[in-house]
Amino acid sequence: MLRVCAIASHTHHMRVLSLDPVIGAIAAGNAVALKPSEGAPAMSSLLAELLPRFVDGTCIKVIEGGVKETTALLNQKWDKIFYTGNSRVGRVVMTAAAKHLTPAVLELGGKCPVVVDSNVDLHIAAKRIAAGKWGCNNGQACIAPDFIITTQAFAPKLLESLKKVLEKFYGKDPLLSADLSRVVNASHFGRLKGLMDEEMVSDKIVFGGQRDEQQLKIAPTIFLDVPLDSAIMKEEIFGPLLPILTVDKIHESFGLINSMAKPLAAYLFTRDSELQNQFEGAISAGGMLFNDTSIHLTNPYLPFGGVGESGTGAYHGKFSFDAFSHRKAVMNRGFAGEARARYPPYSAPKLKILKGVLEGKLGDMIQAILGFPRGK
């Protein structure tokens, strides 16, 4: 039995992000210490209350708390550390793991791009982008679309379609919609407000922008052609804000994406199979989805994880089992079939047989099994 530490820092869908790796770890025969995110205290308390009631307390322990408790956990020696959260804390986790040479799985985030070609079914594309962005916890998900890239000529059509879809989804006043999630806490609300109010960005809002700080609600907000050096384009948004960037030709999106850190997911809407192949080959991302957003996360037959800044390792389905398993090589030999050629003193005939065995030559393999060359 191995000792596993699972730390959840992401505040969205914490039930899934916390329990999915726990299931894989337990299935693989490990004991687990689970540290839920202090950013979602209600869910953390619920897990701390329910897990001991329904599972063996010798296999799973839930530890609540903040930085102090997390630091104390990381100072212990574990057989595996699994962390979901942002890259800043991911570096802290990796540093702590390195002290004991503990392997770690990091499921981080990043700026997930959506490239939209002009040949798509516009209404369906807009619905799927909106569902993946605002329907997925109002953008508070690691695989939520972070920004769109499309051509300058197509951007007005895409924007108009998104506006229609969002009004249908959330009404004329989205802040009154029961289907729009709140921002998880006041700290994140303030961070998002700062992104919206930055001087070089505030005049780029082309849809939405309403907010209610008391209710911790921000309406779906779309920006057009924000500067690349603005804060909203330098950090993962993790909220209901969606910039649209424009290029002259759709292939220019490749260079733009590759100039940034590798994302957890990359999305492309197009009917062009050649463009799909080029996108798949040119873009490095944790996962990739064509003509939809976010739903690859639900497929248990696909590994889910990042690359580079967006994480290391993967889980979901059997991949969760594999993440918490060690492939131990075991070989068992009998005492027959002694090959004299492997032992000193070496001679030209022995070396000839050994070389033939390494090259897979049947004659030399038979000679080795039969104990040739005779003598020493």
UniProtKB/TrEMBL annotation:
One of its GO terms (biological process) is aldehyde metabolic process. It comes from Aegilops tauschii subsp. strangulata. Keywords: Oxidoreductase. GO terms for molecular function: aldehyde dehydrogenase (NAD+) activity. Signal peptide: none annotated. Residues 20-330 form the Aldehyde dehydrogenase domain. It holds the Pfam family Aldedh. One of its GO terms (cellular component) is cytoplasm. The keyword Nuclease does not apply. This is Aldehyde dehydrogenase domain-containing protein. Belongs to the aldehyde dehydrogenase family.
